[in-house]
Amino acid sequence: MNFEDEFLEDLKELLRKRTVKEKEHDNAPFGYGILDGLKCALEISNKYGFNTVNLDNFIGYAEYGEGDDYVGVLGHIDVVPQGNNWDQDPFNPIIKDGKIYARGSLDDKGPILCALYALKLIKDSNIKLSKKVRVIFGTNEESGTADIDHYLKKEKPPILCFTPDAYFPIVTSEKGILTFELIKKFQRSLNGYKIEYIRGGKKSNVVPDYCECKLIYDVDRNVVDDFKDTNLKNRYKIITNVEKNVVVIRSSGKSSHGSTPERGNNAISNMLIYLNKTLRYEDEFSIFLNEFSNIIGFDYTGEKLNINFSDEESGKLTLNLGIINGDTSEIRMRFNVRYPVKANYEKIISNIKERIQDKKFIFEMGNHNPPLHFKKDHKLVLALKKAYEESTGDVAELLSTGGGTYAKLMPNTVAFGPIFDEKHNLCHQANENIELSLLKKCIEIYARAIYELAK
């Protein structure tokens, strides 16, 4: 395997593409950066000797073999925004200490390129397959479903498929995902000040690591004493800048994937809890801050909203406050919920509405993806189990995850790798990376898996 000279150079080229969703253009439904990344993936595929198809710049694939039915490997080349606290440019990949660092190295450019390279090895070895194989490059996984919606309008689904976008061994259960907003409108003027803005977070499925609020007070008001509690600032990671009647408050936190909020530290919660303990003005904003502390606060289990459901198959519900935007007129907060496969979606919604009923919050429903569950004797599960066990010598345990993958959107699909251990999971975090040894192992496992599915 010419791993160093070929695969890694191609991966670096793909990682350099800034594939974060941007404004739609006529020929670029998710922005020019993602389009550039899709073209790059297809060019690499062409270089490897595969036929390629670009479906109207929404999604593309590399194809090998013949026949009407096909097996698939479905990944994505779009990434979440870079966030803060990187030690280097996240779109300038570097190799250090046996790891490659870049946004998308783990989620999901590295793994999908592993699958492509695995198929190349099969092709170059003249191994005969009875089914056609497609490696599919999605472009909207982090922020929507339009890429898969478009694909399924143009193409029939694979008969068997895996997505390298979660954990090894095999993820047979995925929690349901729903997003919603809580909105608080302010009817009366505040007590001698106004909220110029409050904003934090960029995506509901990422624990926010930064939040900022600007308050403008009446000119003759001295507010320095209100913001001098150093212990409180340290506790909630707050920096304040007070100039005459203007106060800018900045809070920091630690980013993490929205499915594992316990691994992060929510900068929005830091901000609102700090303000609740600092502002004692007995106005609508102060009431909002107190209500937030009572029904959300730092709770990522949903207990305060009475939605802390769990089951044996997929574990506990998680709740992430991902985005806040607002001013003196209203504040909007966007949440991301991952709920167990046996939990009742309608019950979750009704419990939230009941909990906020007397708080004068407005509830607005966002997106909903139902949970997914495959039985252990499904032929897809059995084939991947064989490939994993032959490659690693370990027993292929069946897993559940709170992370939503393409498996919920593409029929006949489960998640399969690339993460072996939770300590290696830096998805959506600063300094995202993957070990080179794990990339090599993924190529081996995916080559065996493709063979088992298509032989």
From TrEMBL:
<dbReference type="GO" id="GO:0008270">
    <property type="term" value="F:zinc ion binding"/>
</dbReference>
<keyword id="KW-0862">Zinc</keyword>
<dbReference type="InterPro" id="IPR011650">
    <property type="entry name" value="Peptidase_M20_dimer"/>
</dbReference>
<protein>
    <submittedName>
        <fullName>Succinyl-diaminopimelate desuccinylase</fullName>
    </submittedName>
</protein>
<dbReference type="GO" id="GO:0008777">
    <property type="term" value="F:acetylornithine deacetylase activity"/>
</dbReference>
<keyword id="KW-0645">Protease</keyword>
<dbReference type="InterPro" id="IPR050072">
    <property type="entry name" value="Peptidase_M20A"/>
</dbReference>
<dbReference type="InterPro" id="IPR002933">
    <property type="entry name" value="Peptidase_M20"/>
</dbReference>
<dbReference type="GO" id="GO:0006508">
    <property type="term" value="P:proteolysis"/>
</dbReference>
<keyword id="KW-0479">Metal-binding</keyword>
<dbReference type="GO" id="GO:0006526">
    <property type="term" value="P:L-arginine biosynthetic process"/>
</dbReference>
<keyword id="KW-0482">Metalloprotease</keyword>
<dbReference type="Pfam" id="PF01546">
    <property type="entry name" value="Peptidase_M20"/>
</dbReference>
<feature type="domain" description="Peptidase M20 dimerisation">
    <location>
        <begin position="249"/>
        <end position="359"/>
    </location>
</feature>
<dbReference type="InterPro" id="IPR010964">
    <property type="entry name" value="M20A_pepV-rel"/>
</dbReference>
<dbReference type="Pfam" id="PF07687">
    <property type="entry name" value="M20_dimer"/>
</dbReference>
<dbReference type="InterPro" id="IPR036264">
    <property type="entry name" value="Bact_exopeptidase_dim_dom"/>
</dbReference>
<dbReference type="GO" id="GO:0008237">
    <property type="term" value="F:metallopeptidase activity"/>
</dbReference>
<comment type="similarity">
    <text>Belongs to the peptidase M20A family.</text>
</comment>
<keyword id="KW-0378">Hydrolase</keyword>
<dbReference type="GO" id="GO:0016805">
    <property type="term" value="F:dipeptidase activity"/>
</dbReference>
<keyword id="KW-0224">Dipeptidase</keyword>
<dbReference type="InterPro" id="IPR001261">
    <property type="entry name" value="ArgE/DapE_CS"/>
</dbReference>
